Amino acid sequence: MSIVLTSAQMRAVENDAIASGAFTGLELMERAGQAVVDAVLAARARIKPCLDAP
Q: 47 vs 18, 29, 33, 34, 38, CA distance in Å?
């Protein structure tokens, strides 16, 4: 099951992570960017065979 957070809740989680010293803002942004790339590549892999079909 996925947990869905509001933007305010996510901002609070990020602020807590940064304030704790566990992550920098840059690290969080890099991780978010990599997650987007991974999701796009996974989706592309699923639909590419359909696009190549005759």
A: 37, 27, 21, 20, 14
